[in-house]
Amino acid sequence: MSANVPRWLVVAVALVTVEARGGEPAVPGRRNLVLSGRPESPGGQVLIATDTATVLRFEAGLDPVRTQLQEGAQARFEPLGVAGRSITLLPLAGVERWGGVTLLVAFEDGKVLPLRLAPVARAEADIQVNVFTSPFTQGALLAALEQAEVDNTGLQRRLDEALTELERYQREENSPDALLAALLLLDERMVRNFRRVDGLRFRSKRVRADVEIFKGGGRTAVVVLLENLDPLVPWSLRDVSFTDEKSGARRDFAVRARPVTIPAGSSGRIVVVSESLAVSSTASFRLLFCPREDSEQGLQLMRLMY
Fold first, then answer.
1. 118 pLDDT above the threshold of 50
2. What is the share, in percent, of the chain residues with pLDDT greater than 70?
3. Are strands 261-262 and 30-34 parallel, antiparallel or unpaired?
4. How far apart are CA 215 and CA 203, in angstroms?
5. For residues 122 and 49, is the Cβ–Cβ distance under 8 A?
């Protein structure tokens, strides 16, 4: 490795898709659609996309002859695959230009259920939908129990994470790292006491980030100047992690931000301070910023520290 290569290696700096939190289905790609069972209530909605197969599963047997798309919509789909208790839908190219269509689902007992098929982007389309015609059927109750267990597990995980973060914050509130981070945040002249070892700049249409890394006194400080270029939407710091690469253990650090949420068209400053690594150690460092109105996309800064 060249002597000119900095001891901090840029791994990733980009706008990324952020993993959704909460409300996730028990099985990825599968969704439960529970209808009210009342005749006066509207039918449910299924999300479809061009060249993306969607499977609908029901609790009762289907009538393949009477199950059909609304008149005039058949040309937008491959022939319906109706077998047993399942229907397979495969929209053709350009289905999004036609808007939503109605699928009439006929059961062996003579009942007919209308379902609205709504075109969406391919990434948002349903892959499998379990349709329950009433919330009180055995299948609907089992599905509700399964989803409740998933939701409870997610809530417990987030509670554990919050308690861990609170304990860390309380432990580090008056630590040297926290005090130093606060000083670097409030007084930019403090960086003169450190040696600058690396820097990084990133710019997109929505955000600009200037990152500088300093070392001194056995500490490493990461200073981020984040400029919100969005004219309407505020950005905020969502997550910081500093993890030992070998053991996977979280390393102690202190973070301070001013302001915590950066208004549209404004700038903010974030400082992270941690004890410098031993010569033979390696750790991954990650900062994640997100626009407040869109939890699915954010700016991720990742570095591998030697």
1. yes
2. 72
3. unpaired
4. 25
5. yes
Burial of residue 273 (CB within 10 Å: 0-12, 13-18, 19+) is buried
* pLDDT at residue 61 greater than cutoff 70: yes
Q: pLDDT confidence of 288, banded at 50, 70, 90?
A: confident
Cβ atoms 177, 253 nearer than 8 A: yes
Nearest CA-CA partner of 273 in 166, 176, 181: 181
- C-alpha distances out from residue 270 to 140, 239, 304, Å: 48, 12, 19
Say if residues 119 and 96 touch (Cβ distance below 8 Å). yes
Nearest to 32 by CA among 112, 151, 186, 119: 151
pLDDT in tens, 176-226: 666 667 666 666 677 777 788 888 888 888 888 888 888 887 787 888 888
**Inter-residue contact 47 to 126 (CB < 8 Å):** yes
> Regarding beta strands 68-69 and 101-106, do their DSSP bridges make them parallel or antiparallel, or are they unpaired?
antiparallel
Are residues 304 and 284 in contact, defined by beta-carbon separation less than 8 angstroms? yes
Q: Which DSSP string do the residues of 61-98 spell out, in sequence order?
A: -B-TTT-EEPTT-GGGBSPPEEETTEEEE-BPTTGGGG
| Short-list 305, 294, 304, CA closest to 207 | 294
DSSP codes joined into one string, 205-258: SSEEEEEEEEEETTEEEEEEEEEE--SS--EEEEEEEEEETTT-PBPP-EEEEE
DSSP label of 52: B
Supply φ then ψ for residue 136, to 5 degrees: -110, 5
Helix (H, G, I), strand (E, B) or coil at 108: coil
Whether the CB-CB separation of 238 and 292 falls below 8 Å is answered with no
Q: For residue 150, what are the CA distances in angstroms to 63, 77, 156?
A: 34, 34, 10
CA distance 109 to 276: 71
Which amino acid is located at 255 in the chain?
V
Q: How many residues in the chain?
A: 306
pLDDT at 103 over 80: yes
